[in-house]
Amino acid sequence: MNFASDNNSGVCPEVIAGITEEASRFDAAYGADQRSIELSVAMAEVFDREVDVYCVPTGTAANSLSLAAVNPGWGAVLCPEHSHILVDECAAPTVIGAGLSLLPLESEHGKLTRPIVEAYLAARHDTGVHSVALTSLSVAQVTETGTRYSPDELAELADLAHSHDMALHMDGARFANAVASSGSTPSELTWRAGVDIMSFGATKGGALGAEAIVVFDPSRVRDDIERLRKRTGHLLSKQRFMAAQFVSWLGDGTWLTLADHANQMAARLADELRRSGIDLSHPVDANMIFAWLDPATTESLRAAGARFYQDNPVRRTDGTAEARLVTSWSTTTEDVDRFAAIVSGR
Amino acid sequence: MNFASDNNSGVCPEVIAGITEEASRFDAAYGADQRSIELSVAMAEVFDREVDVYCVPTGTAANSLSLAAVNPGWGAVLCPEHSHILVDECAAPTVIGAGLSLLPLESEHGKLTRPIVEAYLAARHDTGVHSVALTSLSVAQVTETGTRYSPDELAELADLAHSHDMALHMDGARFANAVASSGSTPSELTWRAGVDIMSFGATKGGALGAEAIVVFDPSRVRDDIERLRKRTGHLLSKQRFMAAQFVSWLGDGTWLTLADHANQMAARLADELRRSGIDLSHPVDANMIFAWLDPATTESLRAAGARFYQDNPVRRTDGTAEARLVTSWSTTTEDVDRFAAIVSGR
Amino acid sequence: MNFASDNNSGVCPEVIAGITEEASRFDAAYGADQRSIELSVAMAEVFDREVDVYCVPTGTAANSLSLAAVNPGWGAVLCPEHSHILVDECAAPTVIGAGLSLLPLESEHGKLTRPIVEAYLAARHDTGVHSVALTSLSVAQVTETGTRYSPDELAELADLAHSHDMALHMDGARFANAVASSGSTPSELTWRAGVDIMSFGATKGGALGAEAIVVFDPSRVRDDIERLRKRTGHLLSKQRFMAAQFVSWLGDGTWLTLADHANQMAARLADELRRSGIDLSHPVDANMIFAWLDPATTESLRAAGARFYQDNPVRRTDGTAEARLVTSWSTTTEDVDRFAAIVSGR
Amino acid sequence: MNFASDNNSGVCPEVIAGITEEASRFDAAYGADQRSIELSVAMAEVFDREVDVYCVPTGTAANSLSLAAVNPGWGAVLCPEHSHILVDECAAPTVIGAGLSLLPLESEHGKLTRPIVEAYLAARHDTGVHSVALTSLSVAQVTETGTRYSPDELAELADLAHSHDMALHMDGARFANAVASSGSTPSELTWRAGVDIMSFGATKGGALGAEAIVVFDPSRVRDDIERLRKRTGHLLSKQRFMAAQFVSWLGDGTWLTLADHANQMAARLADELRRSGIDLSHPVDANMIFAWLDPATTESLRAAGARFYQDNPVRRTDGTAEARLVTSWSTTTEDVDRFAAIVSGR
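^ inputs. structure came back:
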């Protein structure tokens, strides 16, 4: 019963097959290989157009290099106050982004909204060279709280960003879950809505370690992504094995099948928890649930071997504390039902 | 006939097996997993003592983080003029090392020697705060030219370094080849000789992408390696798969078996080339050969599909140019013999 | 009628005399001079003990180098949301501090309080290597809103900081004004209260360009300040002229005489404004006033040549907007009275 | 008898007068002042055209920001092996330049030549993303060894640089001495010869602390110099006092009068030394002499209070060691003659 994170899951069979097949081949290092070419083709199919793709081994690298690509060091990225880039990456976007600033905004269930950003812009006094310049908005899809932006919500933010000469970056560590749970295509959730650059993650969705920087608007890119990737140590010699992971994962829609499974497991668990009267903090749009559990329940779950995080230091007056439950491509119905049974006291 | 680089090879069956076995498991992210514990044990066996180990996905990351760990930003690393850290990593050690300087020294077949370093130290005028401080020596084992330091040669450099309050760093991207071709143990080639920190590479030796920072003298470490690794994007969520690669590769001496094979392939090829009257630039201590080939031979080799680098822009008056030939765990006798046959004109 | 900032003032006669006297001398460059020795003595008298002093030409440099000295790059500085280091230095503390983070807290009239900091600490979930480490508190004395911490208030913050292994940094760009308006000595307002390191500014108080990093607790210093100063370009060749400025300014209590004048001008102006029914945002503890002026008054003042900032983008429903009025060592009674007369409509 | 460096001199009366006159005025901070406007006019006169000017307090800041302006972080600057930017600034150009590399070339009496640069370019193997990109040449005028480039020599280097898409930077810490000793105008020695950006120093020539980044080709500027200057702490609040120094120093040709004096003092001293049979290392084109002194002479000079550097650690077989003797605007004929008399044994 591991609901700690989707990154606690293993590697899906399709990706293992892709790696294994590639293992016996020789090919050029550093991305000048066949699999990397195939990846470009696969990405173009996913997004209904050609895109620039740069694979890196971690989401932190993908986010940081994406942001470094579209922001000057004296720029600033507006992002939700609990966003991963701000609180979970030990300031990597700042380190890799030549001193880039991240500025926290309030959010609604983890989502930036046009009024929130507008209020911030209206209240800000620009002191020119003395202050950092606002150069990007960053959103996560799905968000840190498991919610999903609609294409229209993204377009509103993109319009606002672009009208202030800011780029729109998307942290897509769980983009697969967003696509799978929406009625929208990958292109509708990205460039058609105005997203300029994204970090597209496969790791949480079943890969071993493969994330892609996907550039939708090359005119927003200020720096040489290939050199930045190299000089931060993120160009793998056997780069083709990241391409192989992606190609296997994207092929035959595997990525969406797996994400859909994770989403359904979360929906099933959420339904059960609600039925048990458990309060959930946010809409369950994808594969994450934030549930308020009382100490006895928590203890029973832990005793049964359930793993999950309780990061929020706030405890309600009724004694409940917020647990984060994340499902993955490998979560089983059995584990969901067993967890739910313990919560319901059955 | 791919002799371009050992990083053009694939992934060895043992590592694939290790990854595959791990793929179906859940376990904690970011290194708090079983495989990472096993790796600590395996490394302790390799080095005859406990060591601190930090896995990262690339050799550039391993080198840069190792150097950042033992040098202040205002420090400088003395290294051979053609060393990988200096000319092949797009200044990554400087970027990750807070402005760390790398200072080139001459070398003998890619190796620093005590007289070379002493001459540099004697000729240098230290201007205090105006100049960077000499804080490390860095050597590669095996070197960029395929030569190997003996334990005594390393100890001489270590003594010199330590007597000047400098750390000794080893770039061990091909450390396996060094151990396999020497009569020495891993410990004799590292901490017993005075090496303080090393980058221990498995990727060129058969892994998918797994390098380890190995700390022998923690008292030399000035900074928090775990934070540095995280904030440069080199902590993988599925970190355990790097540990799994290493555990499989080190287990049962696979790493040395594979390295020995690569070395033997190089020895076989070198013998054949010498027999054909080809001039070699350096002793062939491991799996790299630098051979002076005439244009006709080069053309025949290329026509037959042979891959190798000719990076050295110098061409001799007899028309020959230097080719770098690298063998790997997956190089076959057939490819070696076929290459040699073309060179010999048979 | 220049109330824009105390840095719009010129250079006081005592400092000009000190520079002029030094001008005809030869002496060693880079701080190995007589004036720098005299400065150490003068600083020891000011603070009732020996301190380490490093002169730099700007407050931004003093703040950034101070913070870089006591924080690792993966650290974070808690500071009031409107503090100069956070909003007016274009992220210089981050750039100079190897990626150092600044985290905004609420404040009361620009001051951090123990409850504010405690609430932040209680609400924060430490995710270890994933988040930056809290390593400093930073306060300004006087604050950005012209208020002053008492020794007890500082001691409370220092105790809290130290109990969490955080350093306490003070931005003392207007420290002279704080000392002059308090009944406290420089030592009571700094190290006796627990301040570990400060930026002590002379520029706003009458110097041409001279700020000092003053270290009270050398055990908090993690890095080599002299090297950091040099490699960020802040070691002047004619460093002795910064020392000369400080020695002249500190001598005979000039700094406090000038600061007292500035404070009295502010008190006089504040009294007049209150008498005219003008609402002031904050207590006037030193040489800064934040006054809500209606549009007609503002226009009359501008027409009469008055200079002041209206940075706050908020306008009240009664039409008033907040003006920042800063007095200096060179502000005249005539200017104060003329300004007040316009406001009162006389 | 201070021949240690021209930065051991004081501040010339004209600059003191300029500072003093400005001291009693109020004016806007951060460069939005009258003196800064006057400086733009003065610089346009000096260079026979409009130029962009950014004052900073140190030569290290001027060099580092100039280089940061025209080079990407993944770029490299080719410079003479003993250049100030490489060996005397504690890697500041790297720190301020986002990891910028400096690559040493041989020189002839401190000067780069077209053949030296061409040989380097021919011998270099460009490995694309793995190596830093060559993006600038940097020369000092006058050089570290006191020699001067002619306009033709500069034009040769500029043509070579530009044909390889590299910028040409000039470290003009002693540019005044170069102009004064040549028959050339400032424009002939800079933009007319193809210099793209320079650090123009007044400090060594008689100012207190004033250096200017002068941009000749804005199309070479990749980054926002004003933001870089601010975020590295080099924008002074009383910026106008740097402008005042420059305006006073440039006015009525004071800068060239003072530099001419320094040059003549060096010429006089060089003549005397040669007459005494002292070997000089380099042509004396400006205000620096490198003279080989025997131990007895050195001791006599030291005993008489003479100050000079002997940085070169090499001692010749005849026992002589190289002394660097620098004259300045304030060097007196008496000091020169007294020094010469001791050397001659009179």
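The domain at 12-252 of chain D is CATH 3.40.640.10 (Aspartate Aminotransferase; domain 2). The CA atoms of residues 300 and 342 of chain D lie 7 Å apart.
thumbs up if we can close this ticket
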